[in-house]
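USER: I would love a firmer grasp of how sequence relates to backbone shape in proteins. This is the protein in question:
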Amino acid sequence: MQNILITGGSGLVGSSITKTLEAEGKAVAWLSRSPKKYAQKSFYWDPKKGEIDDKAIDWADAIIHLAGAGVAEKKWTEQRKKVILKSRLDSSNLLYEALKKAENKPKAVVCSSAVGFYGFDTGEKLVFEGDPAGNDFLADVVKQWENATEKYQDLEIRTVIFRIGIVLAKEGGALKEMLKPPVAAPLGSGQQYLSWIFIEDLSSMFAFALENQGVSGIYNAVGPVPVTNKILTQRAAEYKGKPFVNIGVPSFALKLGLGEMANMILGGNRVSNEKIEGTGFKFQYGDLNLALKKIFS
């Protein structure tokens, strides 16, 4: 039986990956600041304090690294921005130091990153893994985060980094927020591209990366067909049985309410998934209607 250690395991994506791996017969444990809090097997760590239970690394055949403060949870004050960056760097660096010291190193580390790497708004241009980073706050965070996790390769550990798009899920994430108001409406112009992925496909992608030795380096973790904000909102509203109004929420109102964070939802990225599909990974829910049907059925 393979032992898989997950950082950020109790979050939306981590919980889904845990289910997928356990269904495949793997043993899963989480790294947590409160290991006794969960029914899931867990080891202690505290990235802020730079503390980790060394037994966790010895136990693991592979690691999935997802830990980092939620980007959309709170308004981006200067303090919050520091937390967003520091949480990612602290956890990634602590893991690196623990891996460096470990006698039994895991065979692979699969890390999360974000399509925010390309910048808030790349318009209609299809972006690929080799394209340059954007020059805004989020792009800078992602760049530093990837630099911290790419170091695992120096320890001769196969390292995979997934730049994750908009995650569609029943339990939370973007859809829940989009459909919160009594009436669904596009944001801003509604023409900005959203590169989305259904949570079950994302979980399968992480499992696939663990199993396949040929998967290494950076990949965009997005479905095959990016859609505009308007199309996603309209289709989701239909499946949810909610009224849709084709009048965009004005940009100035979003900026007033959300501050700098509004740029994240007013912009968009049309992201290619050619590279991950080239490894032989197959999407089960590459069609938006299929994904929404599964979510709202």
Notes: The longest strand covers residues 108-114.
